[in-house]
Amino acid sequence: MVFRNSYDSDNTVFSPQGRLHQVEYALEAVRQGSAAVGLRSNTHAILLTLKRSTGELASYQQKAFKIDDHLGIAIAGLTSDARVLSNYMRNQAMSSRLLYGRPIPVNRIVSQIAEKAQLATQQYGRRPYGVGFLVIGQDQTGPHLHEFSPDGNALEYVAMSIGARSQMAKTYLEKEHDKLAECSLDELIHHGLQSLKASLQQSKTLTPLNTSIAIVGPPGPNESGVKSEGSFRILEGDNAKPYIDALGQEEQTQAQTQPTQQRDVTMQE
Amino acid sequence: MNMSNNFTSWGRPFTDAKMDMYGGDVTQRYQLGAQQMTVPDDKFSEGVQKTQQPIVTGTSVIGLKFKDGIMLAADNLASYGSLARFKDIQRLYGVGSNTIIGAAGDMSDFQHVQHQLDTLITDEYCHDDGHSLGPAQIYEYMSTLMYHRRSQLNPLWNAFVVGGVDPKSGESTLAYVDLLGTTYSAPTIGTGYASMIAIPLLRRLVEDRQEPLNKEDALDIIKTCMKVLFYRDARSLNKFQVATITKEGSEISQSMSVDTEWGFAEGIRGYGGQTQ
Amino acid sequence: MSSIGTGYDLSASTYSPDGRIFQIEYANKAVENAGTVIGIRTKDGVILAAQKLLDSKLLVSGTAKRILTADMHIGMASAGLRADGKHLQTRAREECKNYRDNYMSPIPLKHLSDRLGSYLNAYTLYSSVRPFGISTVISSCDKNGPQLYAIEPSGLYWGYQATAIGKGKQLAQTELEKLNFDELSMRQAVFEAARIIHLVHDPTKDKGFELEISWIGKDSQYKHVHVPAQLYDEANELGKTQAESGRMQE
């Protein structure tokens, strides 16, 4: 086997520049997964994911997972690594409820998996995890969005994207990020879909089949059966359709009307 | 390559042994063909004794809910059997800035619990993330701890009253947990002797009251109860402290006492040096 | 001798023919690329200051703190791989907890430095692990008085009157050496630290940053905390203008 250089064969080797190549390659594994986008306002945190399908007869993958009533994740990268970590997260969340009667603070559960991931960057015989998460949740201190990455970092963002072609989504978010805090849920989802759409290849579009939307925070005008405190939920298929339709119709009429007005009209349908 | 193709002998993937609050490794349950952990045989296990009785004890704790929060009281005595051994023991203890617990029962077990709670609060402090444990969470923790210990047949020999006000929601908590892991919550609470002597008084003065109860009146009620308890409870002391917890914070008073009248006692058979 | 391509630099358990362990030197490279951290020990307390470089403008401000707490009376700030710093905090917390469990008193900083030094050193002894890619400054103030230590990836640790690690180490150290430690109060040190962190930051080359300052001493009731918002704002603003005028003069 030919290595790209002598300092990347395992994760116990620093390069002369003080870098860890194996860890950087694990970050590449995250970029192989399909994109996920997360955003946060003063009242809500949401995730939007792009699901892949292996063919016309195959179902679409699952990209968003519930961890606890107040907490959920979107993944990009190796799904089986995600299963190990999300199983761990569910245990941690459950133990917080059992021991303290408290929904686990979002930053803490993210740090806990980050600490696990860090160990795998420092010892021989284990590879770093090949998956990245966007984690949303609400706790004592409001709604939150965190990114977990295999290098053992867990950081809090107002908006973030991970996965394939996520740089395009990030560019959109960086442009719009200071508007997000005051957004309503529907506006936030709209920004999220715009951002996710930016990551698509030219020929592709967002459809109710390939898109899922996950939310924490009070129910929006299109939602029914959600409790007022707004626990974690995933909208797919028909439930996601109104939001995606709103996105498409707006595009066609963009030239004639203000986007915000148009969105309000279509949302009421 | 000389490698076994029986995958169960390859060792376990990385797991975090700390994940289970009971000290077990939860992930192991999902491990295919994981080797059963064998517990080493303790030759002395037959000789190990669990706590059978308390040694140095505190008597009752009382607590009530008033308009702005919670008030607790406990005297300063720690008895060794019927001997009034220590007369300056504090049985009220602050946990964080919004919770106070009162302890009856074994004082060394109480000290152990204080240390556990200190560790918990320090852990919370080190997170430095704006989250804190309110009285409801501390109560939940103590309930889990007490039930867990009784399930191991090695109880912490106490009855605790937990009082506090959540600084964020303003919600007040007054609750009880004992060595059996029994829990309940009520507007008035008394442990041990107080559950018989003080509770009827507290219910009449607090729960049957029509108008809201202010801090001054609450303190009068507490003093009345402590006086009656001192009259009736042979393991009590007329020197006690009162804890007050409101949304603003908590404080534990200096020791205080109440005026008592013993003149009538001369006529009671069994009092003092009478032999008959 | 050059390290690259010799094969003597691929493991922490390998010496080069001239007796060096290159993997530890490479770990130090990770430290040298990181935002600056400084610590100042004054007569009435110790302060830590960190330059938190912002990798993204989407980060929520005030989160992902670089100055961490290991016990009520112990602060720590690492320069290098952020995740390694978190790992060391967890270890430090355990050490503090064990000490309290055994001795029912807060751990002396000298003792903690020794424990953490040994821990970091253990990661330089085997090929199956890599050294920590961090240097860490730790602070405390208790009945032994104000104390400040810094630990290196090799496990080496020293006590300091003042120290700096990370990118701006050289310049910061020069500035620190000018201070009069006989006179300096903890409050004054906050302002000096803010000024130095702003000074080592080159706004034309470096990405944006957030300043962080913590203290422990009489002013903080002997608890390790980030300095109060009002003092922080004052020090941050003043530090910024002082650094700017300093650069103008050059």
From TrEMBL, chain A:
Annotated stretches, region: Disordered: 250-269
Subcellular localization(s) per the UniProt record: Cytoplasm; Nucleus
UniProt-listed PANTHER family: PROTEASOME SUBUNIT ALPHA/BETA
Composition bias, Low complexity: 250-262
UniProt keyword list: Cytoplasm, Nucleus, Proteasome
SMART domains: Proteasome_A_N
Self-association state and partner proteins as the record states: The 26S proteasome consists of a 20S proteasome core and two 19S regulatory subunits.
InterPro entries according to UniProt: Ntn_hydrolases_N, Proteasome_alpha, Proteasome_alpha-type, Proteasome_alpha1, Proteasome_asu_N, Proteasome_sua/b
Main location: cytoplasm
Highest taxon, organism lineage: Eukaryota
Family: Belongs to the peptidase T1A family.
Organism: Wallemia ichthyophaga (strain EXF-994 / CBS 113033)
PROSITE patterns linked to this entry: PROTEASOME_ALPHA_1 (PS00388), PROTEASOME_ALPHA_2 (PS51475)
The protein's name in its UniProt record: Proteasome subunit alpha type
GO annotation terms (biological process): ubiquitin-dependent protein catabolic process
Every Proteasome alpha-type subunits domain range: 7-29
One term under GO cellular component: cytoplasm
Gene3D superfamilies assigned to the protein according to its UniProt record, in alphabetical order: Glutamine Phosphoribosylpyrophosphate, subunit 1, domain 1
From TrEMBL, chain B:
Protein name per the record: Proteasome subunit beta
Subcellular location: Cytoplasm; Nucleus
PROSITE patterns with a match to the protein in the record: PROTEASOME_BETA_1 (PS00854), PROTEASOME_BETA_2 (PS51476)
UniProt entry keywords in alphabetical sequence: Cytoplasm, Nucleus, Proteasome
GO BP terms: proteolysis involved in protein catabolic process
Domain of life: Eukaryota
Chief location bin: cytoplasm
InterPro entries xrefs: Ntn_hydrolases_N, Proteasome_beta4, Proteasome_bsu_CS, Proteasome_sua/b, Proteasome_suB-type
Keyword Membrane: no
Family of the protein in this entry: Belongs to the peptidase T1B family.
Record's function text: Non-catalytic component of the proteasome.
GO CC aspect terms: cytoplasm; nucleus; proteasome core complex, beta-subunit complex
TrEMBL record, chain C:
UniProt keyword terms in alphabetical order: Cytoplasm, Nucleus, Proteasome
Lineage: Eukaryota, Fungi, Dikarya, Basidiomycota, Wallemiomycotina
Species for this entry: Wallemia ichthyophaga (strain EXF-994 / CBS 113033)
UniProt similarity note: Belongs to the peptidase T1A family.
Name of this chain's protein: Proteasome subunit alpha type
Coiled-coil features, chain-numbered ranges: none
GO cellular component, one term: cytoplasm
Function: The proteasome is a multicatalytic proteinase complex which is characterized by its ability to cleave peptides with Arg, Phe, Tyr, Leu, and Glu adjacent to the leaving group at neutral or slightly basic pH. The proteasome has an ATP-dependent proteolytic activity.
Annotated localization: Cytoplasm; Nucleus
Primary location group: cytoplasm
One GO term (biological process): ubiquitin-dependent protein catabolic process
Domain Proteasome alpha-type subunits residues, every copy: 8-30
